[in-house]
Design a protein that fits this description.
The protein has about 350 residues and is α+β, with helices and mostly antiparallel strands. It contains eleven helices and ten strands. Helix content is about 35%, strand content about 15%. The strands form three sheets. The protein has a six-stranded antiparallel sheet with strand order 1-2-3-4-6-5, covered by helices on one side. Strands 7-10 form a two-stranded antiparallel sheet. The longest helix is centred in the first third of the chain and has 20 residues. The relative contact order is 0.15.
């Protein structure tokens, strides 16, 4: 955008770029009337497969739910489709990296409690997300800093008629939509996605956090299709017991349950929340919203202050820890990973 075009919707000024994804770029913005900071997502009107308008419509359908960013404005300015929405904090992938790529059991259970509720809400509104992954779960800022938000609904799809609740038909030979690393086995097999697939993907996300990685990461192949096939084969041949080795039984129970659901089954969200809440209590944890990054950031800041007091700060910077970077991270959309979405066009 040129200097003349740095305003959208008459009252939002575009600032610096803070993120980019498969389908657009995100900038920090300011409401010139109130001074409030917001996020602005831009997509070229010449995009081969424009989808920002669709995503904005999904956000409007989900409006009012806890952990669903509010869209302030959508429209076209010059050569760009623009969506103005809530500014959020770092993604769970950002925080996972900040915490040396391992989350504690307590942090995972605190997150799982919220994530199950977010997915349940999206499903209650007749949508499935179809790209459940750490990059698409974003912590809030300020007073909502402990709240997990769900973003990036460009691949979301209605799985039923909102009025009649008539479920979409079972189909096969579908392209892989979403992110291969976290995709359900049925998605790999080309089966139409439904609620069960979001739930299975969420299981892989929490295992990724607990284990530090998944067995099908880093597989090499000559083509994308061959890579997806190798990931599928590894997923299908890795026993649940192996995947959940060293973890409480609840994680194997969760994965086996989600994999056993039939195409049009409604998951028992309350049952799944309860098994993890019971585990949380059994482990003696406090529901105090003290996540790993809260502790880690405090420790790093304390070290930095101690170093500064001891005259060890370099170049006048007392805190060179990742805590500074995380506190400044405001990345409302995912960065494209190695195993990224296959298509954003398949909503049929």
């Amino acid at each position: 955008m040129s200097a003349m075009d740095l305003r959208v919707g008459n009252k939002y000024r575009i600032g610096r770029k803070i993120g980019s994804g498969s389908f657009g770029e995100v900038y920090i913005g300011t409401n010139i009337i109130s001074g409030e900071e917001i996020a602005i997502k831009l997509e070229s009107v010449k995009a081969r497969h424009p989808q920002l308008e669709y995503e904005a419509r999904v956000y409007k359908s989900l409006a009012g739910g806890v952990g669903i960013p509010f869209v302030r404005w959508y429209g076209t300015e010059g050569d760009y489709n623009c969506m103005v929405y809530d500014l959020l904090g770092p993604s769970l992938e950002d925080l996972f990296n900040f915490c040396n790529r391992k989350f504690s059991m307590k942090t995972c259970l605190l997150l799982m409690d919220q994530l199950l509720s977010r997915i349940e809400y999206i499903h209650a509104k007749s949508f499935i997300h179809r790209d459940v992954k750490p990059d698409n779960f974003i912590m809030g800022i300020g007073k909502r800093g402990n709240q997990v938000n769900v973003i990036d609904f460009g691949l979301a799809k209605k799985y039923r008629d909102p009025k009649t609740h008539f479920h979409i038909p079972y189909r096969e030979n579908k392209n892989l939509t979403g992110t291969a690393r976290y995709a359900s086995i049925n998605t790999h097999l080309g089966v139409e996605q439904a609620r069960r697939d979001d739930m299975e993907s969420l299981g892989y996300v929490v295992l990724y956090f607990l284990r530090g990685s998944l067995p099908w990461q880093g597989l090499k192949a000559a083509s994308k299709k061959q890579k997806y096939d190798r990931i599928m084969e590894k997923k299908m041949t890795t026993p649940t017991e192996t995947l959940c080795r060293g973890l409480p039984n609840e994680f194997a129970i969760y994965l086996n349950y989600t994999r056993s659901l039939r195409f049009d089954d409604k998951p028992d969200y309350s049952y799944l929340r309860k098994i993890f809440r019971d585990l949380f209590v059994r482990e003696g944890y406090q529901y105090d919203y003290v996540f790993d990054w809260t502790v880690y950031k405090y420790q790093k800041n304390a070290e930095a202050v101690a170093n500064a007091a001891g005259g060890k700060a370099k170049d006048g910077v007392a805190d060179g820890s990742p805590a500074v970077r995380v506190s400044r991270t405001r990345n409302p959309i995912p960065r494209t990973g190695r195993e990224t979405r296959e298509t954003g066009r398949d909503r049929t």
